[in-house]
Structure formats: C-alpha cells, structure tokens
Amino acid sequence: MCGIVGYIGEKQAAPILLEGLEKLEYRGYDSAGIAVFDGTEIHAKKSMGRLKILSELTHGGETLPGTTGIGHTRWATHGAPSDMNAHPHFNQDKTIAVVHNGIIENYMKLKKKMQDKGYTFKSETDTEVIAHLLDYYYKGDALETITKVMHRVEGSYALGIIFKSEPDKLYAVRKDSPLIVGKSNIGNLIASDVPAVLKYTRDVYFIENEEIVCMTKDDIQFYNIDEEELEKQPATIEWDIDAAEKGGYEYFMLKEMYEQPQAVSDTINPRIKEGKIVIDELGMSDEEIRQIRKIYMIACGSAYHTCVSAKYVFEGLARIPVEVDLASEFRYRHPIYEENTLAIIVSQSGETADSLAALREAKEHGVRVLGIVNVVGSSIAREADNVMYTWAGPEIAVATTKAYSTQLIAHYLLAMKFAQARGTADEKTITEMVKDLKKLPGQIEMLLENKKKIQKFANRYLATEHVFFLGRGLDYAISLEGSLKLKEISYIHSEAYAAGELKHGTISLIEEGTLVVAVATQEELYKKTLSNIQEVKTRGAFVMAVTNVGNTEIEKTADYVIYLPKTNPYFTNSLAVIPLQLFGYYVSLGKGLDVDKPRNLAKSVTVE
Ligand code: F6R
C-alpha cells in the first residue's frame, strides 16, 4: 500500500513533504523517508518506524535544504521494515531518487538482469529495480526513460521521481495505484491521496493509468505512454481540510463514529425524491432492473460484511438471488456466469486490489458492474460501469466505521429500488421504509450517547482472551462485523457464529466467564436466539445481549443488555453496529493501544 508525496516550488520542500506524509500515514506506517534536491545534491533521510521519528531526525524537515523533493510512508511487502528498505531508493551514484506505491511483480527477473549488468542492490525491495532501470535507460531524456521503464515492469505503481540532471523538474507516473496532482500558488504537488495536498490547494488532477506527469514549480504537463501530451482538467475538492483532521477527538475512529449520523443522512437524502427511491447513478431503467436474474456482491473485510447483510435484504425484499463473495475468492473461483447478472463491488477506498481484480474479472465476462465506493475518482469508481457513492467523507482510522454504515445504507436503497421496480414491495411498504430510513441518523446519534456505559463495560474485559459473537440471519451478519471490529483493534481473539451453529463444535470452547455477545434483533428468530443464549449461559458464559427495545425478558438470561430503538427489521444492522463499534473502540483504548493504527494493518489494501 504505502503513501507517496512530492513537491516542487518556492518553499523548502522537506517540511511540506512531512506534512503531506502525515496525512497519508493511514496507508502504511512501518517506515518513512524523504529525498530533497538542493540544486547540487539529492539528500535523503529514512527511518524505520513512525513518521514522527523521521520528523524528529530532520527537525521537522528544517535540516534538509532544497525546494524539490519526494517522500514515502511504507507498508512493507518486499523486505521487512528497516532503514535500508525504506524509500526513497536510488540508482548507484545517487543521481536518481524514486518513491513507489505498489508492487513490481516481475522484479526478481529484472533484478537478476540488472545484477548481470553490474548493478548492485542495497535493499530487498521490488522498488530498487526501478531506480536501476531508470539509470540504465537514462540518456538525457527523462520522459523517454520513464516510458521505457513502464514497458519493462509488470505490476502496479505510483512513482515520484527526481533526476539530479533535471534540477527544476519532478516526475510522476501511475498504473493501478492511486496518484493525484495538486496545483497551488506555492508550487506543485503529487500525492497518493487528496488530504496530503489540501492544506495548499483544492485544485486536483486525478491521474489515470499509464499517465506520466512532468512538473516544474509553475507548470504541469501530462503525457501518455507514447509521450504524447495530454489535456487534463483539474477537479475542485469540495470537502474541507477539517474533514481530514481529528477535530478534538482522541482518535479518528471515535470522530468517524460520531460522523455516522451525518454520513448516513448524506447518503440517504439525495436518493429520496417525493417519498420514492431515485438512484440516477444506477444507470438502469426499471425494465433493465426487472431483467436482472442474479446479483453477485463482492468485497473484502467489513465491506464484505455489508454484502452478507445485503443478501438478506435483497432476497427478502426484492426476491432476487444474491451470491456473496470475498473478492480474493471470487477472482479465482471461475464462477458460472449467466446472462442478466449484475455484480456489485463494495469498497471504501476504491483501491482494494482483490476487489478491483474481481471487478475486472466480472467485466471481462460481460457482467455489468456497479461500484458502491466512498473515494471519488478511485480505481473501482472509474472502472465500474456505474458508481453509487457513499458520502462518508474521508475515513482515516484503519478500522472502518462510517464507511461501513454508509455502505449498509447504499445496499438498503438499492434493495428498495429493486423491490419498487420489480413490484415485490408495495408503495405503502416503501413509504414506511423510507420513514424508518430517515429516522436512522437520529437513532444512531442516540446510541452513541451510550458511550460511557459501554466504556465501563468494556473496561471489565481488557484482559479477556476470547470473545464469541452470535446471531441469526441479519444478526449473524452484524456479528461478523462486531467480531472483526473487536479483534482488529484490541488484538483479542474473537469469532462470529450463526447462533444455531455453535453447538456443532465451537460450544466446547465456552467455559466459566467466557464473554459471548449475542445479537437478537430479528423478531421472527428472537426465541431461537434466546435458546442459544441459554445454551452458552448454562456452560458458564457471560452474555452481553443487543436487542430491540421492549424485549425485556432477555434480562432473565443475559447478564448485560443493550436496547436498540425500533426500526424496520431490515435496518437493524445500522443500529446494532454502534454499540459493537463502541465496545471494540473502548477495549482498544483501555488496553492503551493505537486505536487508529492497529499493528500489521493498513487502510488501503492495494496488494492481493
Ligand atoms: C476493517 C476494514 C477492512 C476493509 C477492507 C476493504 O475495519 O476496514 O476490513 O473493510 O480492507 O477495504 P475497502 O472497503 O477499502 O475495499
């Protein structure tokens, strides 16, 4: 994954690069580095560990002179996190510096070839091969050199490059890894994501695959791989830099949980017109919707969990068969493609490698693809036939909260639209559902007010080793998310089970004091889940239950109960997720962990 930045302008580059990298640390944070050209030499500083260390080493960048530079924050793929493997990487005589986000798949072969030609490698990275290839091809024309390297490397890359022999230029290029260019009145910038440049500009160019950027402090030129100049128009970023900052909260995750009411209503409101669901960006007429025979829902992690929920909603409400797939499985499982199938790819970042590959796989087989995506202009958004944006705004914490919640909303809206078009839900039902949908932001806000109570409960479980989450139907879907939220940020082992499945083996793990979180919001399954709660209770479990207001008899069995306000049964996941997110958050906080940046993880998983 990794984040890259670059700057060329009038100001000292290093402090600007460090500021930009700070906004990209969510992409990886095991090491960082910058290279700055002072007009005579390219100076570099790299360090294993968080960006803070690099910043201290360079006094916030002050000790590195020069007005052109590139920077990198790393999530290791090839070679362990170390100073040596940190970027930037150089050619042998340090006249070319490069930062890279992505993976060079044929690097072993290329490395061998370069070694045979006498090049020596200092790192274990795939990136270093690019530095040496650039050196090998460079005969005074940087643009030509870059295109030659592009023809040789296979895989994904966003690169920032500086050449000592071209002191007033900074180059960048991308293929399958994100890259943007910001044009500002203090100079020009490149970055993996918009927050890194927002302090200086809102005018941003989204770079497409195989486009090359050549910039000076006052000018930006774009080229294709044939070195033909391209015309590109900048987009204006509407959201504010504050949206990418913590705004007084201790962690981004807490801030983002609190942004859920707004994000949910921003995702709902534009799609409801006169009480009806209108999703123009779907690009499908009611007749086309009626022709769809099957839907694939494909995603990774939490986004996949929203697909598990959506299956229940689509099949129940719109009576259309849904196959849910993990993107990493779908892309290699050779599904049986049939006519009139729709694939829905769900992704916050829009850059998840497996999800993108699944999208391409589906498209190659003639399947129409709809993306449910948060990051505007991301790869999945661009490559899908149609895209429905979740208006969650930038999500920085590695553990998703508001993007997850808006993905659920997108699914509900689509299922309601499909039901409307297919005539499987009458007008009255849809009207009632719309009313309940509009109440969700207020209800989420109310549930967030419970945070102190949940924090108190969470603090009792800081030392626990195993937690089990149970539920049936949609409650199983939310259990998957509750379990992931807890384990990824608290490092406590947890698993989610369909409540009826536990007795087929796993119940042997339940012993005196084991924490079981049982979700029971589906009224028609409520009694069944209650029996399953009883089963674990008898074996010594301590049960925290999440259920609908009014289900007070659960208190006879469960030890601790959280009540959810009344909503449509299809929407309960949107409410049940709130106490589960808070629980995960407060366990992590109580254990003194870095909530926003859990170990071994990164926000945007651009490798398979
Ligand atoms: C967990 C989490 C991940 C992501 C997954 C997919 O909290 O955030 O499981 O949901 O990596 O990422 P996107 O949605 O960017 O495709």
Query: Which descriptor suits the 3D outline?
Result: globular
Strand percent estimate: 15-25%
Question: How confident is the prediction overall: mean pLDDT?
Answer: 95
Helix content: 25-40%
Largest sheet: 8 strands, antiparallel
Counted by DSSP, the helix tally is 18
Provide the gyration radius in Å: 25 Å
Low-confidence segments, ≥5 residues, pLDDT <50?
none
Q: How would you classify the helix and strand content by structural class?
A: alpha/beta
Give the termini separation: 10 Å
Bound molecules: fructose -6-phosphate
Order of strands in the sheet with most strands: 3-2-4-1-10-9-11-15
Number of strands: 27
Explain how this protein is built:
Helices cover 35% and strands 24% of the residues. It is an alpha/beta fold and 608 residues long. The strands form five sheets. Strands 3-2-4-1-10-9-11-15 form an eight-stranded antiparallel sheet, with helices on one face. The chain has a seven-stranded antiparallel sheet with strand order 5-6-7-8-12-13-14. The longest helix has 22 residues, at 427-448. Fructose -6-phosphate binds at residues 300-303, 347-349, 352, 355, 399-400, 484, 488, 605.
